[in-house]
Write a structure and sequence with these properties.
Blueprint (H helix, E strand, L loop, with lengths): L1 H13 L10 E4 L2 E4 L8 E6 L19 H14 L3 E4 L9 H9 L3 E5 L14 H4 L2 H14 L5 E8 L5 H6 L1 H18 L6 E6 L2 H12 L15 E5 L17 H7 L7 E6 L12 H4 L8 E6 L13 E3 L5 E3 L1 H10 L4 H5 L36 H7 L21 E2 L58 H15 L1
Helix pairs in contact: 1-14, 2-3, 5-7, 7-13
């Protein structure tokens, strides 16, 4: 029996992707930097929230990183697309994310994680700040930290998203945002095995943007170790609407003004969402500018909104259906084409002066508009919050990297032209690599012959009919191994 099984299991082992790891990334001045290679990391990313915010329900045991089979499909498509980072919203810290995170880790894709969710007591309420900033809220966001802090491809946590989006909220929210960042970083310092950056994702609202950045990026009392300061600043910007729009250039889009505003930044600044859809399909002609010489000295890339096509929102790169199948949209092809043109070597080079800029001391003089909050006296941590920091939350659900059982995507995936994409699989990278655009043309390799299965018709409603199942060589070998095992 052993003579029969040994070759079988030898092949079976070849089909298993053992856990490799991207290297941790740290903040050095205005740059994200690989801890080992010292290369600068420019964010080439997408927002990832399959199901949208409406699909996140308490007690469902489902969130964007809970299903390894679906994550394998999406990671393969993202690796081919060329992204190195995803932003994930609305996560349940009580469920297991090991398979999904390990898959993204294996292909060199980092994660920004939002600690808040739309469920009750899981975010700051701008209309009820004092009550929503509670120990119950802190326990939730600390639970998210615990669930993700041990994953090496965790790039950072967003402590808030567009909590300030009007002059009114600019007058009340800022001290609470800094308090949340303080509490998160103090929890990480006490309970995490490594430092993890914490920052904010801002609305692109002219009347409060400059003050939001100034308020969050300064050091209270000039203390460079101030935990309430943002480690990075994201901007959700949809101002470039090409190609026929009059906003489709560096000046008319306002990108030149953003570069001027952030020109002396002491922390990384990037687009935490971008991708205007007023002209469809999107051609992403802003990509060569975002990653070109006019912007890379100041900005650190961005994340396209979004991977999944929500019902009729026309922001998605990919249609996802209830039966697990997927189809690329023309937006995916266009973005892939733009990313393939990037000068990757230049993007790795750090701006030396950007790593040496010191954060300013917090002062009311930094604030320009009359209604924006100028107080840097922060709310005290809620009752019970410090105990959570000192002792850790009870019964944390700590994630870990696990081995991947198969690289092959078994769910059918269709190109934008309707053909089936053959041999879709992830390609695990070595330990010090992050994913990069590689010149792939994912739709171009699809078969459109009459003998292939055609794609479902793309509509805003997810398809519910059963999909075609396929099995690869690793699945056959695995079945054979178990059959032989139980035969003896």
């Amino acid at each position: 029996m052993l003579q029969i099984l040994n070759p079988v299991f030898a092949v079976l082992l070849l089909c298993v992707a053992f856990a490799s790891a991207v290297q941790n990334v740290k903040v050095e001045g205005a740059n994200f930097v690989n801890n080992v290679t010292s290369d600068r990391l420019q964010i080439i990313g997408v927002a990832y929230q399959p199901g949208g915010s409406a699909g996140f329900q308490e007690g469902s045991n489902v969130d964007p990183l809970s299903n390894g089979t679906l994550c394998l499909r999406d990671a393969a498509l993202m690796q081919s697309l060329g992204v190195n980072t995803i932003r994930v919203y609305n996560l349940d810290p009580s469920i297991n994310h090991d398979d999904c995170v390990s898959i993204f880790n294996a292909v060199g894709i980092y994660m920004f994680i939002d600690v808040n969710s739309p469920l009750p007591n899981q975010s700051l309420d701008p209309g009820n700040l004092q009550n929503s900033y509670s120990s119950t809220y802190l326990e939730h966001i600390f639970s998210v930290v615990e669930a993700f802090m041990d994953y090496p491809n965790l790039l950072g946590f967003f402590g808030g998203n567009e909590v300030m989006n009007t002059p009114t909220t600019g007058g009340t929210v800022p001290p609470y945002l800094r308090a949340v960042q303080r509490d998160l970083k103090n929890y990480i310092a006490k309970n995490s095995p490594r430092t993890i950056p914490v920052g904010y994702s801002a609305a692109d609202v002219d009347t409060i943007l400059a003050d939001s950045w100034s308020y969050l990026s300064c050091d209270i009392d000039g203390d460079s170790t101030d935990p309430s300061r943002s480690d990075f600043f994201g901007l959700n910007s949809y101002s470039w609407c090409g190609p026929l729009s009059p906003t489709a250039n560096f000046q008319a889009s306002g990108y030149d003004k953003r570069v001027a505003l952030f020109g002396n930044t002491s922390i990384p600044v990037f687009f935490s969402e971008y991708g205007c859809n007023k002209v469809e399909p999107r051609v992403f002609d802003e990509v060569p500018v975002i990653y070109g010489p006019n912007m890379t000295d100041v900005m650190s890339g961005g994340l396209v909104y979004e991977y999944y096509e929500e019902t009729s929102n026309n922001y998605g790169l990919v249609w996802l259906y209830d039966n697990g199948t997927a189809q690329l949209r023309q937006d995916y092809d266009n973005l892939q084409s733009q990313l393939n043109k990037l000068d990757l070597d230049s993007l790795k080079t750090s701006n030396g002066s950007a790593t040496s800029i010191q954060s300013p001391k917090c002062s009311s003089d930094l604030i320009q508009s009359s209604g924006f909050n100028t107080s840097f006296t922060l709310p005290s941590i809620p009752s019970g919050g410090q105990t959570l920091i000192d002792n850790g939350i009870p019964n944390p659900n700590n994630g870990k990297i696990v081995s991947i059982s198969s690289n092959d995507v078994t769910l059918p995936v269709y190109a934008s032209n309707g053909g089936t994409i053959p041999n879709l699989a992830i390609k695990p990278l070595s330990d010090d690599q992050s994913n990069t655009p590689s010149g792939d043309n994912t739709s171009g390799g699809a078969s459109t012959s009459s003998s292939t299965t055609t794609s479902p018709t793309a509509t805003p409603t997810k398809k519910s009919s059963a999909g075609r199942a396929e099995i690869g060589v690793c699945g056959l070998v695995g079945s054979l191994a178990f059959a032989l095992l139980f035969q003896h």
